[in-house]
UniProtKB/TrEMBL annotation, chains A, B:
The protein's name in its UniProt record: LysR substrate-binding domain-containing protein
Originating species: Vogesella aquatica
UniProt-listed PROSITE patterns: HTH_LYSR
Similarity comment: family membership: Belongs to the LysR transcriptional regulatory family.
Domain of life: Bacteria
Membrane-spanning residues: none
Amino acid sequence: MKLPPLNALRVFLVAAEHHSFTKAGETLHLTQGAVSRHIQTLEAHYGLPLFVRQARGLTLTPEGVALFPAVRDAFSRIEAASEAISRRSRELRVKASPSIASRWVLPRFTQFRNRYPELMVSLVTVTGFDPNFKSREYDISFQACETQEPGLIYHRLRGARFVPVASPALFKDKPRPTIEQFLDYPLLHPSHEDQFWSQWFALSGMNPGSSIEAYAFDTLDLAITAASRGMGITLAEESMIADDLANGSLVQLSDVALVTSWAYYLIYPQELATLPSVIAFRDWALSEFSDSPPPQATL
Amino acid sequence: MKLPPLNALRVFLVAAEHHSFTKAGETLHLTQGAVSRHIQTLEAHYGLPLFVRQARGLTLTPEGVALFPAVRDAFSRIEAASEAISRRSRELRVKASPSIASRWVLPRFTQFRNRYPELMVSLVTVTGFDPNFKSREYDISFQACETQEPGLIYHRLRGARFVPVASPALFKDKPRPTIEQFLDYPLLHPSHEDQFWSQWFALSGMNPGSSIEAYAFDTLDLAITAASRGMGITLAEESMIADDLANGSLVQLSDVALVTSWAYYLIYPQELATLPSVIAFRDWALSEFSDSPPPQATL
DNA sequence: TGTTTACCATGCGTAAAATTCATGGAGCAC
DNA sequence: GTGCTCCATGAATTTTACGCATGGTAAACA
């Protein structure tokens, strides 16, 4: 393949559009002389003139006329493809369940946006999980799961540990309840399905039998919010209540923690692994949401 | 318009085709390091990787995959257009009538081809004249004419001057005929239409009346050829018989020359005036077929 | 007609970019 | 481990691009 000098071609394109070397130079932030030389280079390459230089403006030779649309189309094709892949590197859609979004991600999100101001990060809080990212509604996902799908990359963030918490206002002047006294209060359940409370009581050495009555909530987040408003005692995932414990809106009522078989992961498709936006978010998320130290809110 | 570095794009294209920087370097006559740097430039421009470097071969990232066909198509578009206009600069189709072709052009044609070996020159000998070059069957034309069409460029080569010639063998041992004795021999007429012989006799001060019987030929060339074979006396255009006079196959029988109102021109469309091939041929033809000195054959 | 004006061309010096060379390092095969 | 094959990279060099200033030309102007 014997291509003409490509930079000269771009100069040719602009000069042909302007019918002027001088104006082309202004557009390209070049001097008129530089434009003239580029055109000369191109004309030397083809061995024929592309412009007819007249004192009264510049016109294209038939060869220049033939070349012009090809160059214009070629460059606009490159421009379109470049624009498409550039956009992908600047945008990032992060998916998280409502609980994780409000309790984990949102408190730290501004920090990330400040560190990477050129990234257009958006938070998607669809419930449910598209296991293969087929819908392409998001690029990277915070997700609790037990099994792994092929084609996806999983970074384990932390296991889930549930501890009992309640608003201090719930007890007013009374002392905080012992485990045995939990049943005197409304028990809030962070799920409709899992039997967190009975598992936790079993772990504590109690067997309350079928006497557990709990108000079930859709999400972990709602149960925590309800508890902090004094509606009762809930089991809360440890990493989600750092803020509330710190500002006193919740108190932890026991050190007994229910550890689930599943864990929280950061997940993204293998083919996005090279995107700088994905890499940046992954590295940041792994350092922020890592296992050992319960994360501190940094608003 | 914000285009990526174009030379780097070409390197990217070749590297993507070879799945190897080293092989791309060989193809492009560059070192492997230079290719590596070009790719780095491009990746820095986009802010994302285009290749996945593995010890076992090179693969494209999804962004590289997206970019590849656009670059390939864009460059092949440029290449096609370049090829088209390059070909136009290397090819030249010269039109001449059979007479001019065989008597003027052909004897000197090899000289031109030797001087411009890169030009693909072809000789088109259609009879008749497409006055506006509309058929596009030829680029430049030797043509006898009186009027000029707009949009065409005319270079006058020489007026036509007809003188009587014959083969010396026609007269054997007899002396060459005087003008009065011409009628004793067959008169060959180089045209079906024009009355060259009667005009020429008038010019010589003779009035042979209607007694002129002439064998008419289609072209000037045929009449000359017939005369050189001893078939009779013909009027021949001066510039077409230099060879024959020089090698003795024809002798000129009088200095009286019939000058026509028309002349021979070299003609080409204005829009081809910038083509180097046209310019080269025009300059050569003007010096070769110029008016004053009767051209010498240079085979 | 002479002058101005608006172009493009070009010689020269400099700044920037491309390229090479030599070397280093990482993964794979044996 | 050892060799092999790639790609990355620091430093030096060559090449190229560029700006500046100037010159030339043809149209427009007055």
